[in-house]
Amino acid sequence: MSVVLLLNGPNLGVLGRREPEIYGTDTLADIEKAVAEEVSARGWEVVSIQREGEGELVSAIHEHHGATVGAIVNPGALMIAGWSLRDALASYEPPWIEVHLSNVWAREQFRHESVIAPLASGVVVGLGAFGYRLAAQALLHLVAGNPAR
Q1: In the CATH hierarchy, which top-level class contains the domain 3-143?
Q2: Model confidence pTM above 0.70
Q3: Are 72 and 135 in contact (CB under 8 A)?
Q4: CA within 13 Å, CB half, 75
Q5: Which candidate in 64, 92, 100, 132 is catalytic?
Q6: pLDDT tens digit string along 21-80?
Q7: In terms of DSSP H, where are the helices of the chain?
Q8: CA dist., res. 58 & res. 7, Å (int)
Q9: 100 is catalytic
Q10: Catalytic site residue from 23, 64, 92, 132
Q11: Which residues does the annotation place in the binding site for substrate?
Q12: CA 110 to CA 96: how far, in whole Å?
């Protein structure tokens, strides 16, 4: 059984009630279910991890090294200065997609640069919870041998 790592950073565990005008009303459980639906046709499973601390996310990446076919990563605000997360993702070999619920470039200036995006196989922003489905579809495509780069 192949496994997709669904990694969510700080404050994403309270989706559905956190600033719904920005992040929508879908919960993290809703998103997990949607990603699982997207990848189930290929027989893949989803391991979902949400942590508030950067070190815990780094540990999750290392723990799943070699055990996953790809990852979907929403680093939350760690996109801005999550250097240890960036370094962990640099050593993660399968394709992975960075996802943000809101359009970070339409928001505050400090959100306009991601330190991890240059390492990602792709980035999906501004499409709400649907962006996770698109990221899952992208992984299905990339793992089938269709490189994005």
Answers
A1: alpha beta
A2: yes
A3: yes
A4: 28
A5: 100
A6: 888 899 999 999 999 999 999 999 999 999 999 999 999 999 998 999 999 999 999 999
A7: 20-23, 28-40, 54-63, 78-81, 83-90, 130-143
A8: 10
A9: yes
A10: 23
A11: 74, 87, 101-102, 111
A12: 24
Domain segments of the chain as ranges: 3-143
Query: What b-and-e string marks burial along 19-55, b requiring 16 or more CB atoms within 10 Å of the CB?
Result: eeeebbebbbeebbebbbebbeeeebebbbbbbeebe
Question: How far is Cα 149 from Cα 142, in angstroms, rounded to an integer?
Answer: 10
What is the distance between the alpha carbons of residues 68 and 72, in angstroms, rounded to a whole number? 11
Note if 23 is an active site residue. yes
What are the pLDDT digits (tens) for 4-13?
999 999 999 9
The torsion defined by the Cα of 93, 137, 75 and 149, in degrees rounded to 10, comes to: 50
Compute CA 45 distance to the chain's CA centroid, rounded to the nearest angstrom: 15
CA distance 135 to 121: 10
